[in-house]
Amino acid sequence: MNINNRLKLAAKLTAENLKSRLQKHPELRLQIPWNFAQVGMLIFPLIPILGALGLFLGLAGTCKLKFRQISRRPLNRGFAILSALLVITAVFAHNRIEAFIGLYNFLPFFILFAAFSSLIQTLPQLRQLSWMIVISSIPVIILGLGQQFLGWSGIEQLQPVFGWVLAPQGNPPGRMASVFMYANILACYLTIAFILALGLWMAEVSCQLAVVSRHHLPIPNPLFPIPYSQILFLSFAVIGNAVALIFTNSRNAWGLAVIAVLAFAFYGGYKKLLAAVLSVASTIFLSAFGPEPLRQSLRRIVPSFFWARLTDEMFPNRPTATLRKTQWEFAWSMTQQRPWTGWGLRNFTPLYQAQMQEWLGHPHSLILMLTAETGIPATLLLFGLVGWVLARGVLLLANWPLFSADIKHEKIATQEVAENALVFNQKPISNSTSQVVCQDVRAADRLIFFSYLLAFAAYTLFNTVDVTLFDFRLNTTSWLLLAAICGVSQRE
Known about the structure:
With 492 residues, the chain is an all-alpha fold. It has 22 helices and no strands. Helix 4 runs antiparallel to helix 18.
């Protein structure tokens, strides 16, 4: 067999292996767009160009097949109105060219949201998307640790291909950035991956315990055929994301990760874990801001890496123009001067530089950036539309049905469980056994849905004191999370 035939055979086997691990879509005609979306999301962090191509093909296929349904949804019409409003703000912008360029960070993602909220319809799809995000976070973590401790650096000639390059010792130096351009962006990405991984871990553990307690065989996973291997992988993913989060040196991410763990502990009723996390978090907080002499006593126990970062003693004597307080005051003054249409997208940077002689890409607050650059009406409309989706998601979580309305459609008791990465090859012994299995799966699905709400809430809170939408990968991921919440809420 010559080399060409071997390569063709290898490519064929790889394609077949990948296809066997892709999830089936409940609507057969949407299978190809869903396949593109899964593969695209899997490779997106490492190879953004190819990942974006896969997501685009999924978007285009969904729009072609469901255009009428997408265009009729009131929520999507709301985003169309918002798009027109943003274009109007660009027309009246201080620097129109910059403002129209800034529309790129919004308008395409409204289309992405509209398409994927129709493509992602079921809870098993949420689980699959979580797996894609968690699996793709592992190489990001490995590259970040190599960058931080082994001095790894990227090949600059390959930057046009991969879309990123590793900066030795991170960016800024001493803070892990991995494949992202700045440590804070990596921190926000890892926060999302950490929450989704923790949600998957808890769901897998609860399902395995429930099945084993009923004397069934362990539940395999299409991505991990060996029993319990998925739990081991998720344990590694949770720990790896947590460790990487620490080395990003992001106070926002640290706080959100602690809040997320507390939320999961409260959700699952883990009182001991709740008490342990609160104790550790309180100890670190008091070592930074507690009264004397308690503060000094705790600093003998808590590493300075934590309390010095919390008190900002790691980076003393920073210029006034680089402080968040200064940036927020300037952005609010811009809002007061032009409250209706703002100064135009991407106009904060030149105006701030002209007055402060300091270049900053954004004012470290998404809300203030939007009010300053697009005006108060457009900002309220955007947050109103997003808030509506989240409100529907919270209502669904609070009134979670024990059995899905589409139980016949999704076949949760048998084959659809396989699509949910929970495969039962045995036939139910009785009707009651089947119902119990359905209840276990629904409870696990509720946990996955909760993790999506928590992940998007963490992303939103992160952006109250920072702005991450300028990173294409993170912006796309956030809109996919919102689209998934919307799609499932509407169907359920």
